[in-house]
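Changelog note: in this version the structure field was regenerated for every chain. One regenerated record is shown below for reference.
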Amino acid sequence: MAPKTLSSFLSPFTLPYHLTIPNTKLLNLHSKSTLILCRFSQPQKTHQKATVSETQSLDPPPEPDGTGAAAPTPGDRFLERHRSFEAAKVLLKEKKKKKKEKPVKVSTNVACCYGCGAPLQTSEPDAPGYSDPETYALKKKHHQLKTVICGRCKLLSHGHMITAVGGNGGYSGGKQFIMAEQLREKLAHLRHERALIVKLVDIVDFNGSFLARVRDLAGANPIILVITKVDLLPKGTDFNCIGDWVVEATAKKKLNVISVHLTSSKSLVGVTGVASEIQKEKKGRDVYVLGSANVGKSAFISALLKMMAENDPVAASAQKYKPIQSAVPGTTLGPIQINAFLGGGKLYDTPGVHLHHRQAAVVHSEDLPALAPQSRLRGQSFPNSQVSSGNGTAGNDNSNGLNGYSIFWGGLVRVDVLKVLPETRLTFYGPKSLQIHMVPSDKADEFYQKELGVLLTPPTGKQRADEWRGLETERQLQIKIEDVERPACDVAISGLGWITVEPFCKSSTSSDSRTEATAGELHLAVRVPKPVEIFVRPPLPVGKSGAEWYQYRELTEKEEEVRPKWHF
């Protein structure tokens, strides 16, 4: 028999390493193949018997040669390290992806209607963005798709009420082609962009249209705050008082507001100042006009282009294809890019942010025009001998004042007067189309059920009144009287207007009763549809009397430096 050699007991094998690791030093260290020698023993039968007998007397038993757990080889250690590196890389990638993941900016390469921003399409005639196939093909052939306006915008321009937004903050009664949440997602990329934000707020619905969470959309970008529709404020209003009131309310929001402007897109008041501020602060950035639905963004952009066109030929040419204006909240359905600046940068009209807590979100789409004031506001005060009450009697001649009465503001608001002074007066500021009726509180429920849809509108008509869910939200207000010479507060109804609460009307001459009332409280119960919000705020100084009682707060030097300036 041939003698056994060393090669019969030793078996060479190699481990190729073709793995990638992030550490180049480890790659250099293990780049060569490694020769590992393993010894395989072949014991005889007699050895196996001896081993069995030994296991009966020894504890723990010795393991035979070549069995049991082997010590990790350099290759095993390398593989283990490599797997840990790979696992760490995956975790780091996931964490970075979560931190740096940005919403995708809406592509401007897709052809959209210049009126509403909806993508153009030729398949659904009733949907936004529809263009007849022949017109679409012709415009596409000549590279003129940017000049196409969709069928819905044509109808809106002729006064038709066509809603398209549903979901939380959308509108009932019409076709719903897009959800309010989808419109908000189209603005999500803004907080990651380097942009200048022009934020619009309706002065008639200041609290309801302010966008309290605007920081989630704008990020740390600078904001030019534009107050719209100031031409609707009562005659004789001092805009110095209004400007100071707005800045005081804005300062509490702690936003990056660089200036405040009081404007009217209808009369063009204040728009020139906004145009100058934009040119000053733009610095090569794109400009985005933000605001809640129906706050007047498209009308403001139209007025802005008109003022800029006097000195900028690019803005003049942009006037030909400007966003459509209508009374329908949700007219704009996508970002509309406008080439408006000679020195670069774009102007964007954006979809309105649809807020579920406004009255527009609960009424039928055909009742929406009733919520928008069309002319200068005139306060309706109670008690007032010239305003008839709901029970048919003239005014309120009760010596107890408004106590024990309920006041209906259309079918949308009910104010129960629980405890006030005999001289207390409530003044309603809002759209004239909503009639105000006052009835004794013990007859209020019966009056509401009988007259809803008839005298108390919106809702309009018997069918909508039957579908109406009623005034489900009630808020108890306890209003302290701090100064008898001025209104105690405003009670603002989101999406409608506000009610000024005056502990004493000017006709009251009893100084003794005024002195006694300084430590008292007024108790009101306000009911609105769910989920409409009710705000209690400092009184807005409107009318000639506003300038008489409004008080300017003394500012410190630091407050004076950081406080945004207002312009009119």
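Spot check on this record: The first helix runs from residue 6 to 9. Residues 541 and 548 are 9 Å apart (CA to CA).
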